[in-house]
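user: At home tonight, take the chain set out below, taking as long as you need, and be ready to discuss the fold:
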Amino acid sequence: MRSWRATYTVLLAALTVTVTVTVTVPAHALALNAPWPRAHPATRKSSKTSAHVERTRTFWILSSALTLSALGAYAVVIALVPLLVERGYTTTQSAWALGLGGA
């Protein structure tokens, strides 16, 4: 019987191959060989400082949304396997469900 570590290793290998073939290689082939555009010289200095931006409502809404989405994602990752095991699934099945959700 295989352990959960072996299952995670297989899922890692499958995800690595899939992402490399479908995303990384085509993106590098299309984007990295293109000529770089010339940089335009800055004509004026921005009057907004980081302290000003940090006090805006838009900044706080965006920061809150990103924080809550990261918290939700990590909560799912941490809680999914124990939840499925409690519901009667094996650890291997639970690991597969977590891996497929990540893919």
Residues 18 and 74 are 23 Å apart (CA to CA). The helical segments are 4-31, 50-54, 57-86, 91-102. The chain is about 75% helix and 0% strand.
